[in-house]
Specification:
With about 250 residues, this protein is of the alpha/beta class. The chain has one domain: NAD(P)-binding Rossmann-like Domain (Rossmann fold, 3-Layer(aba) Sandwich). Helices cover about 45% and strands about 15% of the residues. Strands 3-2-1-4-5-6-7 form a 7-stranded parallel sheet, sandwiched between helices. β2, α2 and β3 form a beta-alpha-beta unit. α7 packs across α8. The longest helix is centred in the middle third of the chain and has 27 residues. The radius of gyration is 18 Å and the shape is globular. The model has no long low-confidence stretch (mean pLDDT about 95).
Length: about 250
């Protein structure tokens, strides 16, 4: 689909990759972009910077009432960017309880599913459009240092195929973006090279325009997929070694 003239909703759009999507969409001549944020005030600067083309809505994707309200406020969209996510930075076994893993699954999987379900009829009414789900290289291979984050993103990746099949007849594209390490607050603890959020957003829009179902957005994501294809067990062992080399919070 074409970005020019489109109307989009970006969840978690007030910072990081979400903010980059808002800016890149508007630079590509999207007609309007809704910025979904749990704190509507956090999007105030974007709204002021792009008067008439950018609107903020209060949206917690794990709150069913707010999700349904968003469909009323954003009933004109034909592009949904499911960017909102949560990383608890706790391991699976070492954490004191399962609350972190449950919240990661609640936001990253169930929240994304809730948005897809709620906005599927909206997209159908508006010609089909597209859904972009911002995932992670951790959806391809488990990173034990990331605890429940990887499993939640792997579940969301599987979700993409199911939603794509269900929405095929209404001509809605469903795209999975596989993202590596990006220079955002969520990845502040990560060492090494990081991609620009703008580059990730531009890759996402390229997937929309070209109808690509799943796209590795950066060098790290491409490298992980290549290593997985070459020797999956060697990659698993390499990821496991990071547990001893990383000062991750276990909750103990």
């Amino acid at each position: 689909m074409e970005i020019k003239g489109s109307t989009a909703l970006v969840t978690g759009g007030n910072r990081g990759i979400g903010e980059a999507f808002v800016r890149v969409l508007l630079a590509a001549d999207a007609a309007k972009v809704y910025v979904g944020s749990r704190d509507i005030g956090a999007a105030a600067e974007l709204v002021a910077e792009f008067p008439g083309r950018c609107a903020a809505i209060e949206l917690d994707i794990t709150d069913d009432r707010e999700v349904i309200a968003a469909t009323q406020l954003c009933g004109d969209i034909n592009l949904l960017i499911n960017n909102a996510g949560y990383f608890a930075n706790k391991t699976l076994i070492g954490a004191p309880d399962m609350s972190a893993a449950r919240e990661e699954m609640n936001v990253n999987y169930f929240g994304t599913l809730a948005m897809c379900r709620a906005f599927a009829p909206v997209l159908a009414r508006n010609g089909g459009g597209a859904i972009v789900n911002v995932l992670s290289a951790a959806a391809l291979v488990n990173l034990p240092v990331m605890g429940g984050y990887g499993p939640s993103k792997a579940a969301a990746r599987s979700l993409c195929a199911g939603v794509r099949a269900e929405l095929a007849d209404q001509h809605t594209q469903v795209i999975a973006l596989i993202v590596g390490s990006v220079d955002t607050r969520m990845a502040a603890h990560v060492q090494g090279a990081k991609e620009s959020p703008d580059d990730i957003a531009r890759a996402g829009l390229r997937a929309v325009k070209q109808g690509i179902d799943e796209l590795d957005t950066d060098a790290m994501a491409i490298g992980v997929r290549a290593a997985l294809a070459l020797d999956p067990k060697a990659l698993e062992r390499r990821m496991a070694k990071l547990l001893k080399a990383t000062n991750i919070s276990t909750g103990k």
